[in-house]
Design brief:
heterodimer, A: alpha+beta, Beta-Lactamase, Heat Shock Protein 90, 3 domains, 5-stranded mixed β-sheet, 10 helices, globular, B: alpha/beta, Rossmann fold, 5-stranded parallel β-sheet
Chain lengths: ~350, ~120
C-alpha cells in the first residue's frame, strides 16, 4: 500500500494542472510548479494573493466571487471558466475546480483549487463546458442582484400595508365578518414578507459585526419576534453563556431553526434549546418533538432550493449554514429525534 | 397626552404611522418630509417626541437632529433608518437619540416604540 501522503505530494508536484492550497480566507499558502509556470509568478509572489481571484481579469472577478461563495456552501465546485492574466500581461483561458478542506470536526481549514490551462487545447468539449458554465454563473449573478433589488423595493410597501392593515383592524375589527377578511390579508402579507426575507438573507453579502451578548438575550429576542401558538412549548436553557457574534445574523439563524421546528411539530409539541461550553467551543442544540427527517432528505437539507414545504423558499438553512460558517462554526443535524447542533468558537479572531 | 411630529419623505409611511399612533391615543401635531420641516415643526409645536427619518433629500435627518438638539438638547427624538450601518450608528450615538427603529418598520417595532413612548410621558 503506497503512502497516501506520498501520493498527494507526487500529485501536487507532477500534476499537469495548476494547484493551489488556500487558507480559510482564500489566500494562497502553497502552490505547485505549474501554477508558477503558467502565471509567470514565482511562489513567493503568489503566496498571500487571493487565489485564483487576484490572478484573473476584472471581467471574471464576479464569476469567481460567486463561485467561491457557492463552494463554501456546497463544498465542491467544478469547471468554472476564468481568464488568468499572467505577470507579463498575457491573458489565457482556464477552467477551475475546487473543494473545501475540513478537519474531523467539520471546520473549514482551507481550500484546494486546481486549474487547467485550456488556451492551447483543441478540446472542444472543455471549451463548451467552459462557456456553458460561464453563462450559468453570469445568469446566477444577475438573478442575485435582481432578487435583492426587488426584495428591497418590495419591503417598504409591504411594511406600509401591514401598518395600514393594523389600523383597519383597530377601526373595523369589532365586526366579525370584516375581521375574517382582515386576518386573511394579514396572513398573506406575512407569507410574502417571510419569502422576501429568506431571499434577501440568502443573496446579501453581509459583513460580520461582532459584539458580546448573553445567549438568554438572543433567545428572548428571537422568541419575542415569533408568534408562538398555545400548543407549542419552548424549553430554554437553564444556564446562560456570553456569546461573541453578529447579533442580527445569529437572530436569523435562531428564528429560522425555531420556525422550522414549529412547522415540524405541526404547531403542537415541544422545542428544546440548550447551550453548553466544551473546551473552547460553544455547543447550541435545537431539538423538536416532531416526526423526524428521512435519511434521504438529510443529505439534501442544507442545499439551496431544497424544501419540503409548499410555501418554502429552500433558502433558509443555506443562509443559516453560511452565517454559522462565517462565524467560524459548524452546523449539523441528526434525526430522529431531530436535533440541529451548532458549534461556535468561544473567542472569535 | 403625548404629542408627536412625524418626519419622513415617504407620504405613505408618514400617514400610516401617523394614523397608527393616532389610533393608539397619541396626538400627531404635524408631518413633514425633510430635515428643514423637522426643525420648523419642532419650533412651532414643541412636541414631546419627534419621529425622524434619516435619509431624506436636500435636508436629511441628521440636519434635523442637529438643529433640534440645538434648540433643546433634551428633545426626545426617535430615528427611523433604512440603512443601519456602523457609520450611521456612530453619528447617531453622538446626538443622544432616544431610540432607533429600522425600516421597513414592522408592527413589532411599532409596538416596541409604543411601549417606549408611553414610559416617556
Amino acid at each position: 500500500m503506497i503512502n497516501p501522503g506520498k501520493i498527494a505530494k507526487t500529485l501536487f508536484e507532477t500534476s499537469p494542472d495548476m494547484i493551489a492550497i488556500l487558507d480559510p480566507d482564500g489566500k494562497i499558502i502553497d502552490c505547485n510548479l505549474h501554477l508558477e509556470n503558467n502565471t509567470n509568478y514565482n511562489k513567493k509572489e503568489l503566496i498571500g494573493l487571493m487565489g485564483p481571484i487576484d490572478l484573473i481579469i476584472d471581467e471574471d472577478k464576479k464569476i469567481a466571487t460567486s463561485a467561491f461563495k457557492e463552494l463554501k456552501i456546497t463544498n465542491m465546485k467544478q469547471n468554472i471558466p476564468l481568464r488568468i492574466k499572467r505577470k507579463d500581461g498575457y491573458v489565457f483561458s482556464s477552467i477551475w475546480s475546487g473543494s473545501t478542506l475540513r478537519n474531523n470536526s467539520n471546520e473549514l481549514e482551507g481550500y484546494l483549487v486546481t486549474g487547467k490551462n485550456i488556451s492551447d487545447t483543441d478540446n472542444l468539449e472543455l471549451k463548451l463546458i467552459s462557456v456553458t458554465e460561464q453563462h450559468r454563473q453570469e445568469k446566477l449573478a444577475i438573478i442575485g442582484e435582481f432578487s435583492a433589488r426587488i426584495a428591497h423595493d418590495i419591503r417598504n410597501p409591504l411594511a406600509i400595508a401591514m401598518i395600514s392593515l393594523e389600523n383597519l383592524k383597530m377601526l373595523y375589527g369589532a365586526d366579525g365578518k370584516k375581521q375574517k377578511q382582515l386576518d386573511r390579508v394579514e396572513r398573506s402579507i406575512h407569507r410574502i414578507t417571510h419569502q422576501i426575507e429568506d431571499v434577501l438573507n440568502f443573496v446579501r453579502e453581509k459583513p460580520i459585526n461582532l459584539k458580546e451578548i448573553l445567549f438568554s438575550q438572543l433567545i428572548f429576542e428571537s422568541i419575542d419576534s415569533i408568534t408562538i401558538l398555545e400548543g407549542i412549548k419552548i424549553i430554554t436553557p437553564k444556564n446562560d453563556v456570553k456569546i461573541i457574534c453578529d447579533k442580527k445574523q445569529l437572530l436569523i439563524v435562531l428564528n429560522n431553526l425555531i420556525l422550522n421546528a414549529i412547522q415540524a411539530i405541526n404547531d403542537v409539541g415541544i422545542i428544546e434549546i440548550t447551550i453548553d461550553e466544551i473546551d473552547d467551543k460553544l455547543i447550541i442544540q435545537i431539538k423538536d418533538s416532531g416526526e423526524g427527517i428521512s435519511n434521504e432528505n438529510m443529505k439534501k437539507i442544507f442545499q439551496p432550493l431544497f424544501t419540503t414545504k409548499q410555501h418554502g423558499t429552500g433558502l433558509g438553512l443555506v443562509s443559516v449554514k453560511s452565517i454559522i460558517e462565517s462565524h467560524g462554526g459548524t452546523i449539523s443535524v441528526t434525526s430522529p429525534p431531530t436535533i440541529f447542533t451548532i458549534t461556535l468558537p468561544k473567542t472569535n479572531s | 397626552m403625548s404629542s408627536l411630529v412625524i418626519i419622513d419623505d415617504d407620504v405613505d409611511i408618514r400617514e400610516s404611522i401617523s394614523d397608527y399612533l393616532n389610533l393608539k391615543g397619541f396626538d400627531i401635531l404635524g408631518c413633514g418630509n425633510n430635515g428643514l420641516d423637522a426643525v420648523e415643526l419642532y419650533k412651532k409645536y414643541k412636541p414631546d417626541i419627534v419621529l425622524l427619518d434619516l435619509a431624506m433629500p436636500e435636508y436629511d435627518g441628521f440636519y434635523g437632529l442637529e438643529h433640534i438638539k440645538k434648540i433643546n438638547s433634551h428633545a426626545k427624538v426617535v430615528i427611523l433608518t433604512g440603512v443601519n450601518d456602523e457609520v450611521n450608528e456612530k453619528k447617531i450615538k453622538v446626538y443622544n437619540v432616544t431610540e432607533v427603529l429600522e425600516k421597513p418598520c414592522s408592527l413589532r417595532q411599532l409596538e416596541k416604540i409604543l411601549k417606549t413612548l408611553k414610559t416617556m410621558i
